[in-house]
Amino acid sequence: MTADARLVSRAAMFILAVTLMRVLWLARDPYPLYGDEAQYWTWAQALDWGYYSKPPLIAWLIAITTRLLGDNEFGVRVAAPVCHAVIALIVCELGRRRFDARTGAWAGVLYVTLPAVSLSSMLMSTDVPLLLFWAIGVLSLTRAIEPEGHRAWIGVGLALGLGLLSKYAMAAFVPSAALYLAASPQHRGVLRTRWPYMALVLGLAIYLPNFSWNLAHGWLSYRHVGDNANLQGDLLHPLKLAEFVGSQFGVFGPILFGLLLFLLVARLGRLYRDDRTWLLVAFALPQLAVIAIEALLSRANANWAATSYVTATVLVVAWCRTMPKLRLLLPISLGLNLAVAGVMLGYHDLARLAGIELTRKTDPFNRLRGWNYLGNAIAGQLREHPGFVLMTDDRLLFAELAFYVWPRPTQVEWNWHDHPTDEYEMTTDIAQYGNRPILYLSENPDPRDTLSHFRDSAIVSRITIPLYRGDARHYTLFALQGFKG
């Protein structure tokens, strides 16, 4: 085995070891599902080409893993660390192809331990398949522009289509690829061939069923994306921009993000002149810039620029390897990443050892707590009220109860909007159950407007779910009859 092969092999073994540890940790079912995870699970029970807020691939993925492993937290989440392991191996190969085996090895092990990846490996989100197909697309493009690499354009098209079925943010892949090719003296001629356009047609053909679903449903998903952008109100929000930029030090790691900012601000011209680094910049800088502008104009979540870090990891590693004085930052960053990952996995035990009292402010996982206990409490009430339909007035509450109440209840969400604002307002209708008695669960202890739509209403129970000392979630359960419309 050559020295390069040994480096890549060691990196792969490290990636697999980290992934195995994450899978074993998830197998303990350490936390109940977050509301979005539970929602994706409900989608997996009714597979379709689209859903109110997202394209369908995450539902398909969860359907596969839960069919194999059961309808439990582990079955819902296990694809997350596995997908990130595959992405890390792709990042390793990307670094090897663009630079050398050592760059690829460092990039792979740093990617799999990034703070954002450690967190993303604990939860199932649409970012997981998005990042997978983004990475496949970039690697396929790298191979496609090599001599006799035309067949790799098929991989570009497949990645684009499947990425769009994962999350609409995959659309940014097209302008990034166009920017790279148009501004690359070495590969500009590719745009005069048929190959990139055939890949684009293939990707759009794969994505077409979701487009058709949106057409049939009044462009619901697209309108939801526009609502999320929220480009209304005051023109500038500098504090939101500062908050987003600050969050990226946590997403990518303080050292790596600091180096990336320096490269993009102070060395952009030099990066452009080297085709190897220009490809990496073209798939990192535009997303960061666009999301930063959105943060300035409205707001931006920390994960919205996640695709940037697939190639940014290789970029930072490659630059550090050209600067002997900076090479030490790579193992230091790896050590910090591993320390952060360890804190995430053992946060509650470490907090107790450090004498930190867990509260909503000190527990980053506070939104995951208590849902299984609430599900058990509602299941008990449904056993005492056979034939009742379970109604909620909140999307995430609906999803959590759908997962944690057993046997699975007949559910409906109270729709008090002129138009549906989530999946369950779109797919359920209280009018279908107007003649059946309703158990209505709400965090509002006096939902008068809702109760006024029923002939009879009575409080069945007040449910308290303890979270921390002196802190709990409080719900009121009503029995309703005689829906008036």
Question: Any overview of this molecule?
Answer:
By secondary structure, this protein is an alpha/beta fold. The chain folds into two domains: 263 residues, no CATH class; 114 residues. It is built from 24 helices and five strands. It has a five-stranded mixed beta sheet with strand order 2-1-3-5-4, covered by helices on one side. A hairpin with a 2-residue loop joins strand 4 and strand 5. The radius of gyration is 25 Å and the shape is globular. The model has no long low-confidence stretch (mean pLDDT 94).
Q: What is the oligomeric state here?
A: single chain
What percent of residues are in strands?
5-15%
Taken from the alpha-carbon principal axes, the silhouette is: globular
> Could you give the count of β-strands?
5
For the record, the count of structural domains works out to 2
| Low-confidence runs of at least 5 consecutive residues | none
Layout of helices and strands:
Blueprint: H1 3-27, H2 35-44, H3 57-69, H4 73-77, H5 79-98, H6 101-113, H7 115-120, H8 127-144, H9 152-164, H10 173-182, H11 195-216, H12 220-229, H13 238-252, H14 254-266, H15 268-273, H16 275-282, H17 285-297, H18 308-322, H19 329-345, H20 347-353, H21 371-384, E1 389-392, H22 395-404, E2 411-413, H23 423-427, E3 438-442, H24 448-451, E4 454-468, E5 471-483
Parallel strand pairs: 1-2, 1-3
Antiparallel strand pairs: 3-5, 4-5
